Hints:
- The chain is α+β, with helices and mostly antiparallel strands.
- It has eight helices and eight strands; from the N terminus they run βββαααααβααββββα.
- It is globular.
- The chain starts with a strand and ends in an 8-residue tail after the last helix.
Amino acid sequence: xxxxxxxxxxxxxxxxxxxxxxxxxxxxxxxxxxxxxxxxxxxxxxxxxxxxxxxxxxxxxxxxxxxxxxxxxxxxxxxxxxxxxxxxxxxxxxxxxxxxxxxxxxxxxxxxxxxxxxxxxxxxxxxxxxxxxxxxxxxxxxxxxxxxxxxxxxxxxxxxxxxxxxxxxxxxxxxxxxxxxxxxxxxxxxxxxxxxxxxxxxxxxxxxxxxxxxxxxxxxxxxxxxxxxxxxxxxxxxxxxxxxx
Length: 245
């Protein structure tokens, strides 16, 4: 299953809408966008390069890049799970849930794995918090148009963390990948059948195009599921010469 969705801010007609874009699935690492907004708004993060938190034994470390001191910038770049978890722990369950509700983020379910009471640290990791591509686009549209209840500096700092660079034709891309495992009809994880996200927006002068791509795989792809989604979306949006399709 693939959804590709792109919508210009201010328009009700999508530039691209392919596949089922209303089915919810785990937010996975795309939820770091929301955590970043919370962290900067609440004062946990001060700049893209501060604070720097040390890695400790017992933290999630299946990616070797995570076994080191991490800043907000390297957290977003390397998708460091433990940094997200320390941030949400510092927010606390009540404030965390309040932000998710205020963001109108997907199904807003931060309960976590059933019976485990781990929502504060795991809700977005192939767990209870689910969001559709359509809802991702809505959330990001509210973010970049100043409609979320966070400070302007929280938005600008998060935007800096998401910077994916300039494309030919004057378009600047901001985005975040994500990947995880979906559930079957009985609530069990479908191991070996990952999904990949790429969500974000691009801007050129006063034009802003918000996008989301979700890919479901029947077997593990050769590359990272999120990067496969990212490259596929950018290839859909841009022609070979870099101009917008």
